[in-house]
Amino acid sequence: MDVSNIYKNLIYNQRQQLIFNSLADAVLIETADRHIEFVNLSFCQLFKLAILPEELVGKPTANSGFASSFLFKNPSKFIYRVEEIIEEAKPVSQEKVVLYDGTTYLRDYFPLIINNAITGHLWLYKPLTIAHVAKASNVHLLPVFEKVLETISVPIAIFDAEQRYLFVNKISLSNAEKRKFIIGKTSLEYSNFYNLPTNMALQEAECFNQVVDQQTAVRFEEERTAKDGSSTWWQHALYPISTNDDLNTYVVKYSIDITATKQSAQVLQQTIASYTHVLNHLSEVVVMTDDQLRIDFLNKVWEDFGNNAEHETLFGLIGIKNYEFYKQAFAVLSNTTSNAKGRLHFAQKDGSKKWFQYHITEGIKSPTNDKGIVAILNDITKEVHLEENLLEVVKREKELNDLKSAFVNMVSHELRTPLAVISSGAEIIQMMLEVGKPASDITPFTTQIITEVERMTAFMNDLLMVSKIEAGRIDFHAEATDLSVFINTIAATSYNPWKDGRQLIRATKGKVQPIAVDTKMLRHILQNLIDNAFKYSSNKPAPTLRVRYSNSYVTISVVDAGIGIHKEDILKLFASFSRGRNVVNIAGTGMGLVVVKYFVQQHGGNITIKSKLDAGTIFSVKLPYHKV
Question: Which domain holds residue 465?
Fold first, then answer.
């Protein structure tokens, strides 16, 4: 409620103007910023102001106060005391002020406070003699106060220290008989007499004691329900007033209708609840912070994603390692940009990642903080996975194209060369037979044809084996095997000696014990590795097969002193049709190690390569002991 409007209405009400002008006491009402809201004739006469009261309305009080201060015995003290009273903003009762001619007046001051804010100042100056005559047995209010308070259109009541009513205006209690009855009684006595609810009377009594004991103002609210079921809300304020000698304490109560404010607050709360409900049901995460990045709001979507929402700051919510996010956030806070976008991810409990696209904008400035930021996080995990899958598909397609090219080149080489040899060999044999050459001359060519046929057969077998592996049509059958006997059998059959006359060297360390293996797979593994060792170390010392037994696994190493492998080629060797760049014209399909690695993995083992160009290579296969 705007108290200044009340006073303006009072001023322009001619009937009330006549009442105030007829009073012997000087009355001054100021606005909060100390402009004259109302003065009566007695005030103008007291301060020797040669101007009509209505002509002073709106003028600064300080100008008139300074000019009038010379009417008092101590002008500077008068001005200083007025400023002191305004600054303290506490009621003053019956304070003596002495005019230059010795006349004494009693000054009363009341700060007009609504909702904790000073909206005006009420000053009363009355002759000392009138103040003394006005005292009665239990009523210590001057008639001038009653007349002034009756004209103010807000409920006002005054109590003594025992909570008894000394005055109540018509706005508070319109019934004249009840108003007369309540004087000298407490609110509780009044409620009991008229059989009214006592809850508000008890609350008022509790607040009253606090006002008297602590000499501080207290406010409380009351909800009133009319017969038609409608409700109104009132705020009551209790202010302590003590006399100069501190012998008497009075309490002033005034009430204002705050129904409109309450209704506005309810509408605001409903609006906030509606917006909060909407935000909590969005698919995006919404977080609002202040200028220190303290979290003001975080919708429930964050928790729905399985994340912890118990964080005070954004740093706890979004890890500080997301440097780009915070770089963007501080750019918005510093007004470098009004919005920013980007991506970030969070690790989930299952080890996966959840990706978000964020959009940061300026927040709303509050009364207590500078503007913060609003960050909206949209879950794009599926989109990121689709992108990754698409990239994987593109990568795979490229690999397939490369594989296709390698396959074509390999087939062209591995088939065309043997076929050319076979064709030319057959032609030579035919010509030698026609001229009657002996069988001993023909044998080298038949041997060459057989070798090339075996080479083509091996190539086709490798192709079929890779095809079966990719189709998952190879079963693993482990059986307990004496590895030493198994290796000796392979060495005796194929490598003692090899084609070039060299013999495989063998070495064993550790306690020999049986191992469960698929003998077909293990034979393929060993023959491939040993064949390669001999093939790529021509004219070098014979390869060595080392077997080392440990407590949990056995390691089989094939060591040669051959041409070695480029470091960049090592990781590629286990891909189909991939060979080292330095093999030159040494025959090979580039599929043997693909099969070897697959068979090793079927045993739950692993294969590693160590190599140095022109110094040799070590292939190591580590196989765990399987129980059969």
Answer: 385-470
Report how far residue 111's alpha carbon sits from residue 241's, in angstroms, rounded to the nearest whole number: 11
CATH number at residue 165: 3.30.450.20
Number of Cβ atoms within 10 Å of the Cβ of 399: 12
135 and 4 in a single domain? The answer is: yes
DSSP secondary structure letters along 63-113? HHHHHHGGGBSSHHHHHHHHHHHHHHT--EEEEEEEBTTS-EEEEEEEEEE
Please say which residue of 316, 349, 376 terminates a domain.
Answer: 376
Residues 612 and 518 in one domain: yes
pLDDT tens-digit readout, 369-427: 677 889 888 888 888 888 778 777 777 777 666 555 555 555 555 555 666 667 777 77
Model pLDDT, residue 392: 78
Determine the angle formed by the axes of helices 439-471 and 592-602, rounding to 10 degrees.
50
Residues 56 and 128 in one domain: yes
Per DSSP, the three-state class of 571 is coil
Q: What is the distance between the alpha carbons of residues 367 and 225, in angstroms, rounded to a whole number?
A: 34
b or e along 494-505 (b: 16 or more beta carbons within 10 Å of the residue's beta carbon)? bbeebeeebebe
Beta strands in 518-552 (DSSP E): 544-549
Low-confidence ranges of the chain (pLDDT < 50): 1-13, 15, 129-141
Q: Are residues 200 and 300 in the same domain?
A: no
Per-residue pLDDT tens over the stretch 131-148: 343 443 334 445 666 677
